[in-house]
């Protein structure tokens, strides 16, 4: 197993000299008084290694580094449940580096298991500009410098981890599922539980997607025919990739019957933002002062989804919320084979041409969206980002990390109890281009 990456979330606010002034005359807020202050605390510097209550070592929360005044109820809580010992993200290489423009923040929060997984693949597709709309926009030179596309994937699992608990907990967990339901969108009925021995043969749907979906998509894109244009090629590749990922679960060899996962994928080039989405994880774009949804949640209260389910002979029942067959709170997911054909894995694909006004992109699981609207999250992130830029207390290499942690902490403060995963991609950071290496020409005689 690869070395566990450095923890990007935290549980403390006591880093020395970690509060910067929000205005020229704003006082420094002592750590012990931050809980009662009317300020946004933004996380930044990692504090020394600490131990969780169960004895596992982990990097504690990023400490506060900037204060954004003027918002109600905004303070980062001092106690944030640390994530699982295995960080749920996959990346090529180390660090937070798309020309220092992206960062990941995750928290297990008040759950007993971490079912969110994240995958980032730099240089995902190395093609010419024709693969992404011939770089027709934005009209700037840098669009032609990096035709490679980056892959960002976020997968929020449900119905998997508790199924892998020892069988002697079946009664306890089953009663809780039946009475309270799975807040993460899973079954409200008792599930079948496996012993640890039999559970070893199974894999969470979200984990599988994080490990394999990017490879499947790359293969499908390379094999797809683009006779109908580059958009058709990408759409066909994404649809087929999701179908293949879902097919891996149909025979029951990879996952439990009730395990499933959302899947939101962003393919980012210099001129295009290509998004595939299945479930209720979400991607939103900040363009100037505008919030642009890149996905639409697949929920049973969507008129088109309700019609599709009823036409297939299914039902949407209201318990604590609308649920397919009274069980699942989303209408599309990878896995969930016991709810076929009503729950499908077909993604919705969108294409957004990049603009000079694009500021950043947020991808997150519903642990964030359950307590913040897209507009609230974008406004909050924009405020924190611009304040940090004005204060000039950190470089661009840390800006994305700070904002990602700020969003995560904000969601927890607002009462989220679910797993939370946030990917923050800064789209307006100046690029530091490397000059191409050229071999010295041989002397001519």
* SSE-based structural type: alpha+beta
CATH architecture of the domain at 87-161 and 204-298 and 333-370: 4-Layer Sandwich
CATH level 3 topology of the domain at 87-161 and 204-298 and 333-370: Phosphatase 2c, domain 1
What's the shape?
globular
The helix-strand sequence is: EEEEEEEEHHHHEEEEEHEEEEEHHHE
Low-confidence parts, pLDDT < 50 over ≥5 residues? Answer: 1-100, 137-145, 163-201, 431-445
Summarize the amount of helix as a percent range.
Answer: 10-25%
Straight-line N-to-C gap:
56 Å
Number of helices: 8
Q: What is the β-strand count?
A: 19
For this structure, what is the CATH homologous superfamily of the domain at 87-161 and 204-298 and 333-370? PPM-type phosphatase domain
Domain PPM-type phosphatase: 101-427
Enzyme class: hydrolase
Organism: Eucalyptus globulus (Tasmanian blue gum)
Keywords: Hydrolase, Magnesium, Manganese, Metal-binding, Protein phosphatase
Which labels suit this protein?
8-stranded mixed sheet, disordered N terminus, Phosphatase 2c, domain 1, protein-serine/threonine phosphatase, 5-stranded antiparallel sheet, globular, alpha+beta, about 450 residues, single chain
Overview of the molecule:
The chain is an alpha+beta fold. The chain has a domain at 87-161 and 204-298 and 333-370: PPM-type phosphatase domain (Phosphatase 2c, domain 1, 4-Layer Sandwich), CATH 3.60.40. The chain has helices at 170-180, 196-199, 205-223, 230-250, 303-311, 366-369, 374-391, 396-413, and strands at residues 39-43, 49-51, 57-59, 64-69, 89-91, 102-107, 116-125, 149-158, 260-261, 263-268, 272-278, 282-287, 290-293, 316-318, 322-324, 334-335, 348-353, 358-364, 420-426. The strands form five sheets. Strands 5, 7, 8, 9, 10, 11, 16 and 17 form an eight-stranded mixed β-sheet that branches. Strands 6-19-18-12-13 form a five-stranded antiparallel β-sheet. A two-stranded antiparallel sheet has the order 1-4. The longest helix has 21 residues, at 230-250. The N and C termini lie far apart (56 Å). 48% of the residues are buried. Residues 1-100, 137-145, 163-201 and 431-445 have low confidence and may be disordered. Residues 167-179 have a biased composition (Basic and acidic residues). This is protein-serine/threonine phosphatase. InterPro entries: PP2C (IPR015655), PP2C_BS (IPR000222), PPM-type-like_dom_sf (IPR036457), PPM-type_phosphatase-like_dom (IPR001932). Its EC number is 3.1.3.16.
